[in-house]
Amino acid sequence: MSDAVLKASDVGKTYQMGGQPLTVLSGVDLELRRGEFVALQGASGSGKSTLLQLLGGLDAPSQGEIIFNNRPLRLQSASDAAIFRGQHVGFVFQAYHLLPDLDALENVCLPAQVQRAPQARAEARARELLAAVGLADRMMHLPTELSGGEQQRVAIARALMNEPEIILADEPTGNLDTGTEAEIIALLAQLHRERNLTLLVATHDDVVAAAAERIVRLKDGRVAD
Amino acid sequence: MSNPCTGFPLSLSFAAMKWLPFEFALALRYLRPKRTSVSFITLISVVGVMLGVAVLIIVMSVFSGFHLQLKKSFFQFSADLTVRPMGGPIVEYEALADRIAKIPGVTGVSPIIGGKVMIETDPEIGAPAFDAPVLLGVDPDRMKTVSQVPDNLEAGEFNLRGNRLVIGYNFARSDGEFRLGVGDRVLIHSPKSIQEMRESQQSGEELGILPEEYIVAGVFDAGQKDLNDFMFCSLYNAQDLYGLEEGASALWVETTDPLELGPQKAALRKLLGEGYRIGTWEDLNPVLLAQVQVEKMINQFLMFFIVVVAAFGIASSLIIFGVQKTKEIGLLKALGASNGQVSFVFLIQSAVVGLLGTGMGIAMGLLVLKYRNQFLGFLRGHDVELFPEKLYGFRELPAQVVPGDLLWVCSASILICLLAGLLPAWNAARLRPVEALRSE
Q1: pLDDT tens digit string along B53-106?
Q2: Distance between B5 CA and the closest CA of chain A, angstroms
């Protein structure tokens, strides 16, 4: 049996744009092994984000299948997809997507609350995660009171909240300056090492990709050889 | 009190709401964001519902009070039942009254003679005023067993001895045409005397019959404009004025419960047979009673639209809110929130707005009702007359809070607010996470 946590097998995605089909991904094969840090690199429009969305259950492929823990991922309903995302996947987005009305601690607690986890346990873990990303003294701050780098650290802590089997990060340093970018990359690499995270980071940036153990390149919707 | 974990007021803290599902906590946070003391949209929505509910409660209670006051003034003024013979007067009214008094539930019986007369005032200064009111001839002692008029006089006493009159408040008003007071003289032309004069003219005689001279002994206020147009004299004088000799035109029968007259009516019917007509206090002015009931329903219907408009306000603000929060909805879904959980955030918001608005509306409505007359008095002092007495017939604005009406208003308001949240909730539920996260 393969050690792959997540696998894309001949995956394709075609959108209908103005009545015309637009193929974004076609015949993509990708394997993500447990504890692996993989960079998904490609130019803008190469299909990186789309592939991450398909792998994370945010969208369904038009062709092929996603295999999760050696079983085809059959998300028959929106509810199935929500359960899969909530229990097995952690997302980190380029725009952080923190809820502006919640402070850092509440934002990190949110995935556990969605899963109806006991509050006390969720809060203890959120505190531990915020401390791990270097924000022990910023827990009560609203996103507007945090810098971009700090917001992304909160988002990373939030992605780890439910102890997902995979972290999917879409251009996590895309909105950050060079110095902060290096800090976030270092943090991801550190968390990967310390917690044996399975990490797939979509990026167009060579510096980010260099931190990964393996690089998969996408070009025109296909994995480049 | 602050939560040590999160540092904001316990009542609004996520951590403090351990017993609440996250949808509730998030909905409450959206309604009262941490960044501001209260969401302006929330405030507008709550105020809209509050005003709608308050106005509805005020209008319904005033109409209920108006109706109740009207009914009360009717059955306090007259007896609950009136027994009237089909033809001619009741000659042996004393004997008949004794028999009726034995019916279970009957508490008093009084003979009465009623009809219109022409009156003329006799002022010391100025021209006399004329009117044709209904003059009721009653036995003062028996009258006290069937009516509350003798016990509720504005001035003077219920003394009908000799040529004494007790007049309704309309004839005594300082701003009225007659301005009569206790001790003033009133000249009464009876139908009998007018008829006699006409007959004498026809037969070639020039018979002049002078009007009867009466003195005002008391002024009553029945609490309702139409009822204050009546006058009372003694039964003996009325017999003379209407030419009834020893008879009475009807019997007033008082019962224990004016709102449940069925058993007494049936017993009277059995006792009297078909020769008598049995009326109720409602016959004093059935049109007015029905009119008030209809007006209450019409107003209720119209005012209900205020709540509907407020609900549209909630719906539109939640739809705008949903658009503003599209990315957050997408994020919640990315974090594993189901469509149902996301919908609930919106439904809870509309429910909370509905509950808050309805609660505050009830409080505001009851407060306004409590101080309604002070408020109207204040406006009157500034020459603003919202409820002119001449038009509505009441000196004070009546109100009755009916628990059933309150329940109806509350249920309808909360239900409408919940319905208002359905569309935004459905919009949020059907958002695809990928599109929501991509939205600008």
Answers
A1: 898 899 889 888 888 887 888 878 888 899 999 888 888 888 999 999 999 999
A2: 8
Q: List, for residues B389-430, the tens digit of each pLDDT value.
A: 766 666 778 899 999 989 988 998 898 888 888 888 888 888
B331 and A115 in contact by Cβ < 8 A?
Answer: no
Q: Is A129 helix (H, G, I), strand (E, B) or coil?
A: helix
Q: How far apart are CA A155 and CA A148, in angstroms?
A: 11
Optimal mutation site among B31, B331, B339, B430, interface A, most CBs of chain A within 10 A: B331
pTM for the whole structure: 0.71
- Nearest Cβ partner of B6 from A100, A103, A144? A103
Q: Do B35 and A101 touch (CB under 8 A)?
A: yes
Instruction: Using the Cα atoms of residue B219, residue B225, residue B229 and residue B235 in order, give the sign of their dihedral.
Output: negative
Nearest to B338 by CA among A208, A79, A27: A79
CA–CA distance, A78 with A89 (Å, rounded to integer): 15
Give A-chain residues touching B335 at CB under 8 angstroms.
85-86, 91, 110-111, 114, 158
B289 vs B432: CA distance, rounded Å:
59
Place of tokens 């899963």: A115
Determine, for residues A116 and B332 on separate chains, whether the beta-carbon distance falls below 8 Å.
no
Interatomic CA distance for residues B232 and B77, integer angstroms = 12
What's the Cα-to-Cα distance from A95 to each of A99, A146, A152, A206, B285, rounded to whole Å? Answer: 11, 14, 8, 20, 75
> Inter-chain contact B434–A113, Cβ cutoff 8 Å?
no
